[in-house]
Amino acid sequence: xxRLFLLLLSFVSCMAVHGPAPEEVIKPKYIVGLxxxxxxxxxxxxxxxxxxxxxxxxCGSRFDDGTPGLPVRVAVPDSLSFTDVASGLHxxxxxxxxxxxxxxxxxxxxxSGTGTNRDLGTHIPVKIPMxxxxxxxxxxxxxxxxxxxxxxxxxxxxxxxxxxxxxLTTEGFRGNGQYGQLNTRPVQVDxxxxxxxxxxxxxxxxxxxxxxxxxxxxxxxxxxxxxxxNTSDFTHPHLxxxxxxAKDIAGAGFFSYALGVNGKLYGWGYYTxxxxxxxxxxxxxxPCPVVPKDLTEDLKLPKPIASVTCNSTCTHVILTDGTLWGxxxxxxxSVGNGQEPDYAKHIPPYAWxxxxxxxxxxxxxxxxxGVHDFVKVxxxxxxxxxxxAITSTGQLYSWGRNKxxxxxxxIVGATPDIMAIYPxxxxxxKVTPIDPFSLDKNQRVTSPYCLLYPxxxxxxxxxxxxxxxxxxxxxxxR
Length: 478
Prior knowledge:
The protein is mainly beta. The chain is 5% helix and 33% strand.
């Protein structure tokens, strides 16, 4: 069973959401884009773009230019500043101050948008020069990444509200009445009534928020419950029927949300238990809603919701009082409430098996209870079991799985083999303040399992006494 099929079965194709949500007034100090093994941070004051990963090549940097687990400058021209960034399984992209898109990473599905699906031969970012009609590809304001069972690629919104897509657009992602195909350059998606789109997310479906508060969806590989539009046509964008206008959208691979202008949250999709619908747990999930369901009574939150975001298994909301709440599957500490399975007793040890509903937080829980000024949560795309959040003062928080040293805390897995076999060894289960730009060295840490059994493979690759740090090169201008 290949890995992308496992992604589909385990609903980890989370809707990638990056950049400021349409309803936000406060511009956060940082914008964060989360990928499976790489994370990116934009300093909104300077526009400088940084990557964090145990693999510097995944950061769009040279293999020797920086320290794993610490911020490194993405290798883009110094003259540019950046406004948005997104990442997926193994490809990433960012938007510069001219609205042009830079891309790096894998390209087997045409993710680079440069006219080929061949390996570009470098991890250094390249600019997407033109769209499918040979016109300059610019004026982009937001990007998103998806990875599903049969294809993966990227979506972009331009300042005129048009939507563009490229990659392997099967499962109806192309939005033009076809099942989809390989699109190695950006192609425009026709949105009904020429609606101006202001935000897009993509996972098992594409979900788009228009400037007039309407929500549109397409894709889903003929699984109409995923679209929320109550239509069997998955190859064209269709209106999602909502009782009121929406101000935000979010979702994971098999469930989606629209946030009404009055703070009511509406949900739809297969995984009803992940939306707090009912209380029967994963095995006795409530039936799928035919149309979006008002979740007010299921959530019972104390204040209206200001914004909503998902990582691959969880949902997080900020309420109008600035408090942070979460729910969903907590098997990698992804909710952030300080809990996860006892991986010392898990079989296999320190390795979630990607099965659904194994540690479900069925109702919202308050996170970081001492903090009342959260302004943004950052979710992720495929295989993202962690999150970031930021307060009005610019304080960053992170939590969840840290397999690729993505949490900005400087903790790096001992060796690639140890990280691959015991990926949950470095989970941070509680919403935790971080200051990645203050770090001057990383800390290589082996798995707790290897502390008990240091002599077998791969634990013998990294002796306990070698858990020391090395000096870091400067992360550059912050």
